[in-house]
């Protein structure tokens, strides 16, 4: 069975990965594999450009995103993001985060890339200070 987590948001890649770079890590982008081999995938956009030789379709990898919208286990998410960072960190910057919310109350965290390392940062939940009213009773 396992522990399921809802993932959302994205880690942007600047500049976006070129098609040649995307092809270096095909396990992170497969248009036909709906099940996904990795806990994250690349958000790839297409731009159609008219050239003197005809229509060119330019594909770029703009961000790292959860591989599906439904909750899933995602046990290796940090390692999978780190692989992309290690592969392209010398020529690309990574900004943003992937948010995670687990099944248990209070299990919320974000996956950031900080100084070239994919890191889970747990949320700190703080109760606000409540000033209890002072009750005074009338003198009898």
**Number of helical segments with 4 or more residues:** 2
Provide the low-confidence segments as ranges: none
> Element order, helices and strands?
EHEEHEEE
Intertermini distance? 66 Å
Q: Please give the share of residues in helix.
A: 10-25%
Average the pLDDT over all residues and give the rounded result. 91
Strand order in space, largest sheet:
2-3-1-4-5-6
**Largest sheet, if any?**
6 strands, antiparallel
- The structural domain count equals 1
> How many E strands?
6
What radius of gyration results from the CA coordinates?
22 Å
Estimated share of beta-strand residues: 35-45%
Categorize the overall geometry.
elongated
Structural class: mainly beta
Characterization of this structure:
- With 140 residues, the chain is mainly beta.
- Helices cover 13% and strands 44% of the residues.
- Strand 5 and strand 6 form a beta hairpin.
- The radius of gyration is 22 Å and the shape is elongated.
- It starts with a strand and ends in an 18-residue tail after the last strand.
- The mean pLDDT is 91.
List the helices and strands and how they pair.
Blueprint: E1 5-17, H1 19-24, E2 40-51, E3 54-66, H2 77-88, E4 93-102, E5 108-114, E6 117-122
Antiparallel strand pairs: 1-3, 1-4, 2-3, 4-5, 5-6
